[in-house]
Structures are given as structure tokens and as C-alpha cells.
Amino acid sequence: MQYLQDGNTYIIHVQQNEQIMSTLTQFCKDHDIMNGKISGIGAIRKIELGTYDLANKEYIIKHFNDIWELTSFQANILLKDGEPFIHAHINISDHDLAVKGGHLFEAEVAAVGEFVLHKINTNGKREMDDHIGLATMCFID
């Protein structure tokens, strides 16, 4: 991983064969980033993608091992259990330009992973919402 910084903005190159979510999460820990947003593009593989089934309060998870274009990566960063937590959704496209999307659990960079992270100086966090079954944004102490 390589990066450049301009104030509260970081341009991050997650390199070939690196894991995206674990690399970006460690970057946040190493740079004391507790809240922020991330966008990105690239080419990825070994993708663990999910969609949330509200009725059963669980994710339906699919795996895509081939190389896919990462056409959009949008994420926010908030504290969860005292640690930076990245909540990311992506769109991916195959060689036939068929598109899939959902919640990203993890993926590996196949060629490039290009991300822009903007640190936001707030104290937002996630707390468990039992009605939904997920840790959701919470701005009330």
C-alpha cells in the first residue's frame, strides 16, 4: 500500500494481491481516522459480497473469484466497538459488462486499487439496533 496526504484527504493505492478492507481498516487505525468517507475504483478478485435480508436479520453472501472491474466503491468510516469500521458498498462489472453490487466484506486487488479517503473530524459511531439486527449510525451519547 502506498499513499499521499493533503490535509484530511488521502490518496491510497492498495497494491496487487493486497486485501482491500483489511488494508484500509489498518490504514485508518494507523492514522487515527475514526470517521470519514472513502471512494474508489480498480480491478479486484476473490470478492465476498452480500445483501442484507432484513426479515431473517442476516446477510446473504456470494463469492466471486474471477477478476472484476471495481466500477464504484463507496464507504463510510465510523467507530464500532471503539475501532474504525468501514461500511462499504460496491459495484463490479465482468468482461461482458454485467454488473453486480452489494455490501463488501472483503476482496483482493487483482491489478489496481485506487482510493480517496477523506477524514471527517466528528465522533460518529455505530451501535447495535436490535430491531434491524445491525450496528447502525448513532449520533446520540
Mean pLDDT: 97
Strand content: over 45%
CATH topology: the name is 60s Ribosomal Protein L30, Chain: A
- Return the CATH class: Alpha Beta
Instruction: State the share of residues found in helices, binned by percent.
Output: under 10%
| Helix vs. strand class | mainly beta
What is the fourth-level CATH superfamily?
Hypothetical protein, similar to alpha- acetolactate decarboxylase, domain 2
CATH architecture: 2-Layer Sandwich
Choose one word for the global shape.
flat
Number of strands: 9
H-E order: EEHEEEEEEE
Number of domains: 1
Largest sheet properties: 9 strands, mixed
* Distance from first to last alpha carbon: 35 Å
If you had to describe this structure to a student in words, what would you say it looks like?
The chain has 141 residues and is mostly beta strands. The chain has one helix at residues 20-30; strands at residues 2-6, 9-14, 36-53, 58-64, 68-80, 83-93, 99-119, 125-129, 134-138. It has a single domain, classed as 60s Ribosomal Protein L30, Chain: A, CATH 3.30.1330.80. It is 8% helix and 65% strand. Strands 1, 2, 3, 4, 5, 6, 7, 8 and 9 form a 9-stranded mixed β-sheet that branches.
Explain briefly what this protein structure is.
With 141 residues, the protein is mainly beta. It has one helix at 20-30; strands at residues 2-6, 9-14, 36-53, 58-64, 68-80, 83-93, 99-119, 125-129, 134-138.
